[in-house]
Amino acid sequence: MTVLWNDDSVRRMNPKLDETASRVHNAQYLSVQKFMQENREFDFVWNWEMDSRVVGHHYDFVNKLAEFSKRQPRKGLWERNERFYIRGVHGDYDTEFRETIEQIYGNETIWGAPEVAGVTPLGPKPPVPTAQEDNYEWGVGEEADLITLSPIFNPVNSNWILGGQVWGFEAGKDLPRRATIITQSRLSRRLVDLMHAEDLKGHHVGSEMMPQTVSLLHGLKAVYAPMPVFFDRPWTGMQLERWFNGGPKGESGGFGSAMGWGRESRFQGSTWYFRADPPQRMYNNWMGYEDTGIGGEEWEGVHGRPCLPGMILHPVKDVRRTGRGYSSKSDLPYR
Fold this sequence. Notes:
Elements: H1 7-13, H2 30-38, E1 44-47, E2 53-55, H3 58-71, H4 77-81, H5 87-90, H6 96-105, E3 146-148, E4 166-167, E5 185-188, H7 189-200, E6 204-205, H8 210-218, E7 222-224, H9 237-244, H10 278-286, H11 297-303, E8 311-313
Parallel strand pairs: 3-7
Antiparallel strand pairs: 1-5, 2-8, 3-5, 4-6
Helix pairs in contact: 2-7, 7-8
């Protein structure tokens, strides 16, 4: 089922938004907000990018993400969200990883909503004054307001090209904010309603920052659910940590971020980024089509059908049967 919308319809709903802010590239969630305002029966909504593909069962995939996120305690959550989880470096997610975060941040963890001029937090307040008084209990069993598939990183000082997109907030460019590259995410009605409320005031940030930043400002539960991401080169765990969690305190954002200008080519060989080479080739091969010397009827007659583990790929565009000698490519320049 398809529900049609256009730029004029979402702009009429948000008359105080700056015209540049309301352009679809900067405001991808306005259509989601419109849908959720007009269809009040839904508790959650997935913003599903059209050029992503699941290898496996969609229901199982999204269900596991939701179950994982519901189990997560809020203590240290924003700090765990800040980095790519690498098991060989961080250890078990629910024990060693938590302990490492505690050691790194001490009393400097985010606990509830920050105090920001012009913003009145409407999310739940922490049950105790400090995170140190909580034994990883607050948030367990609570549905996540936001689930992302990549880190929720701090764009400030990251040199990410869109990190300065802030409109209408009293704090301006000093606004505390977070971002995730690739907007594929699950959002709760509570979060979408708060995004809509901020937009009605003329408060807005870029698409990749909007649900993450509103979650932060209002003290909602946001979870980066670390799914498997594969590379076409034999990175070690420590190499991945160095190149993808190169920010302060081992974070993926801030100074040294892999999402920064001139550093995004690190994702070229990955299976999940807005600009990556393997996803199209791998999906074509999985579908039985020739791509880059692998796949197709003749190849499969000798080697068998290519198989892949359960994963989600991005970007995958214009999937169709390929001809002999076909090799997929992307003409987008790396920044």
